[in-house]
Amino acid sequence: MNTEKHIIVTGSSGTSWKDAIVQTIAEASKTINNLSSVKILEQRAKISNDKITEYLVDLDLSFVIDKNRE
Asked: What is the DSSP string of 5-55?
């Protein structure tokens, strides 16, 4: 049986929500092993001069706990 842990992280991009999601997962994978799923909790944006300047996402990342870790 696998046990998963969940963490909520926030990421951003100047390009798009999709890019914010992809970049946030890539950054989290540098320090978290065994990522298994993502749930997009919220998407929002910052606006300046009537244009979106930053795309923000809140993600629920899941990862499998390593049972063999000492």
From this structure: EEEEEEEEESS-HHHHHHHHHHHHTTT---EEEEEEEEEEEEEETTEEEEE
